[in-house]
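Sample intake — UDP-glucuronosyltransferase 1-2
Collected from: Holothuria leucospilota
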Amino acid sequence: MSLKDLCIHRSELSSFQLVALPIHVVGLQSTSVVCHIRIFRSCFEQWPKFVMNLSQRKPRQDKLGQLVLITVLTMHSCYGKNILTLSAQAASSPSHYMVLSTITRGLVSHGHNVTLVSNDLKATVGFPNGTYSHTLFVKASYNQEDVEQLIEQIHGIAFDTTSGIRGVFNTFSEIFRLNYRSCLDVWEDTKTLHNLKKSHFDIVMVFPHSPCDVLIATYLETPFFVVVPSIRIPFFYEGLIGMPYPSSYVPFDVLGKFTDEMTFWQRTQNFFTPFLYDIVDYFANSYFYEIQKEFHVHPEMSIRELYSKASLWLAHVNDGNDFARPRTPNMIPVGGLVSRPAKPLSQELEDFVQSSGEHGIIVFTLGSGVSRIASEETASVFASVFKKLPQRVLWRHKGKIPGNLGENTKIKDWLPQNDLLGHPKTRLLIYHGGSNGVLESITHGVPMVIIPLVGDQYAHAVRVQSKGMGLMLDKSNISEESLTFVIQEVLNNPRYKERVQHYSDIHHDLPMTPLERAVYWIEHVMKFGDQHLRPRSADMSFIELYMIDVAVFLLFVLFIVLYIDFLVLKICYKCCCTPKSKLKTKNE
């Protein structure tokens, strides 16, 4: 029976059934607040009769009645909305979906109805039970072999220092191509599009690395919010949403060369970097322009311009993994979403950790995107260094086990990263620099050695090192000597532990958890809209925003004043400085 039917036929139900109704309503996660009120009113109208009947019921009924009574008394009114999230993108990082699914779990727990759109190949991967209410699947035109080939490419460039820019470009081109195919699958499924259109969603959750998401949100004419899983908006969309981005102290280079303290030449390079990424952004989004034209999704606007219409931006940053910078009211930092109190370890892992004694353990993982070190030589270097350490080492690795692996090192194909970082015996995290692990380390106060492999991992590494929470090791400089040095330095110098604990204390001192903050602002925007959060600068042209027209006008006025001064001085000069002989000649 639907919630509407429950409201219509409530008069036909007994007092006991009426009291039990709210339990079923909660399960439906209804969007009808009015119906909730009507049901509660009916419940309380029959309340005296229900309480009187409790004494006449059998023991089993008494227990059920008491349960219903407790449920009704502890229930609170909810404000449920229909929310759409998309997960059909073929090439995606599981760590990114950890951020998205954490938010959807929070929304579901608040009584909202979250619909997940994916394809039959991915299904609900990355979105466990409890993170969505309904699913819609489209038919995937790619297969698992395509995904596995892409994963092999990513593994290949992870520690490869010879492929250079070409190898990275080829890999990302394949990512863009595969994501375009998976996006087209959604648009070619007319039944799914029709169902989405008639569902009248209140808001759409959009992923910044998936242009398909913003195209669908725009097509549905539905407000949307963007969840940024890393340090900054991809390819520097700040200007389009009105956010200041002074190149004098906000580093733009996602390869992570700069901090917020730059030399003259670094600031010069930092100034021109966005123009380079404009070119990259153009090629990345060019795949999706055909979809814009074919389905008439505002083809006159660029993907960037579509993103700029977002009602809210949730950035997975906090004071620990980013530098202080100006933000607009519609940009909300929610760094540490996936961090949580540590759960007990399995008996196997707990025994291994406890056997480390006072030396503790080291956790080594390269994240969900790189599950193994493709180079056996590089893997052997790590194994050789680890076996000389007094600490025990837990290493996430799915590749061939090095022959020189020490007895103090345990290799697992998966590790409960957050729970290990929250263990009191964990002394160090050796990591590739993904945002989730960095924020988990900050949350639990564990110093780091960062070995960035690609993308924004370099930027995270620079921030960790510049803030004194650990050291960065370049993947092209990995040797037994260099690896031993950074590990021993971070382990034995208390400065790193003190600094990361400082930022951990800041993180825990906030009045709301990151998830509470994210859900609060999403609900806030659904209630009140976004106009009071959106700065006027988002709708101003470049010339207006930076007052270039005013500067030109003032220069013109200055030119006129100087020209008049010049004419006056010229006349004065002729009057006062003309030779007398010339005056006599003129008089004669």
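Post-analysis note: Residues 318 and 335 are 5 Å apart (CA to CA).
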